[in-house]
């Protein structure tokens, strides 16, 4: 399987994140990508397809914010990485404010996603990696892997959060649509619900979004991913949320993924994007499922067996020492 990664993705390295009331080391480290890269034996550099495919998903205001935030933070005399602390709660007016703290709250939904002077360049490279894998599949490969990092599925059209800045799965799906693919499905099997991806395609019937994730009544991102969220308008029925309890092991996860795959089969996509997170692993430091390393090839084979041309984009997974084996194992399920 072709694999893509750009070294520029490594330069985003925030120092600390606000986690359960304390500042802790940032979990979404460059070492994650390095561990995966070692385990899969390297990857090809993506071509540069420019900002067009990013702006097909994200708003110009938001892209400008990602480029400017670290500079504005520094100009305001602030130490460290840019982090929001005040948010325009639902119902507040859409004011055009330019103070950095107002911008951070406007374009971010949590305080766990710091922006550094290198964030834009790394996120841009991560998006190019997703696009390279997408075009490999559009050009005839049965499957391709984008070693994306920073990840993407918590980022919406105009907001960041959950370590995500550009929604790489959405950018991949939209690029496939724009290349003429009529129906594209996204299967999200990261531990966390992909709220950004859901929001981006919420009212659309051409991109089906199915997610298997920790019940948001108990886990981040809390406000999205409940089973009664099914999309709206033309998108009604094109969103499927399958929350699972803490402690979930292979049998329940696999059966739930089959439910998602059956729904995707009814939608009959020409291309599948898999948002793959290895934070479903039993030893993940911030998650509470209990999948084993041996489970990943099996879960991947269930996806592979459906026969859809498939773009796999990397999302979460924070147990760095196990990450390489878990990701390589997942990819091996497509080789069977
Ligand atoms: N106290 C991804 O896996 N932090 N993002 C939760 C819980 C945010 C995870 C803090 C977790 C985001 C791509
Ligand atoms: Zn996750």
Give a concise summary.
Belongs to the histone deacetylase family. The chain has 336 residues and is of the alpha/beta class.
Provide structural commentary.
- The chain is of the alpha/beta class.
- The protein has a single domain, classed as 3-Layer(aba) Sandwich (Arginase, Chain A).
- Helix content is 35%, strand content 13%.
- It contains ten helices and nine strands.
- The longest helix has 20 residues, at 119-138.
- Bound molecules: N-{4-[(3-aminopropyl)amino]butyl}acetamide (Q9C) and zinc ion (ZN).
- Zinc ion binds at residues 190-192, 277, 279, 315-316.
- InterPro entries: HDACs, His_deacetylse_dom, His_deacetylse_dom_sf, Ureohydrolase_dom_sf.
- This is Histone deacetylase family protein.
- Its cofactor is Zn(2+).
- Belongs to the histone deacetylase family.
- Residues 46-331 form the Histone deacetylase domain.
Which short descriptors sum up this protein?
single chain; 336 residues; alpha/beta; Arginase, Chain A; 7-stranded parallel beta sheet; 10 helices; globular; binds N-{4-[(3-aminopropyl)amino]butyl}acetamide
Assign the CATH class: Alpha Beta
SS element count, helices: 10
Number of domains: 1
For the record, the CATH architecture stands as 3-Layer(aba) Sandwich
Q: Can you say what the CATH homologous superfamily is?
A: Histone deacetylase domain
Distance between the termini: 11 Å
- Outline: globular
- The assigned structural class equals alpha/beta
The CATH topology: Arginase, Chain A
Given as residue ranges, the uncertain stretches (5+ residues, pLDDT < 50) are none
- What is the CA-atom radius of gyration, in angstroms? 18 Å
| Number of E strands | 9
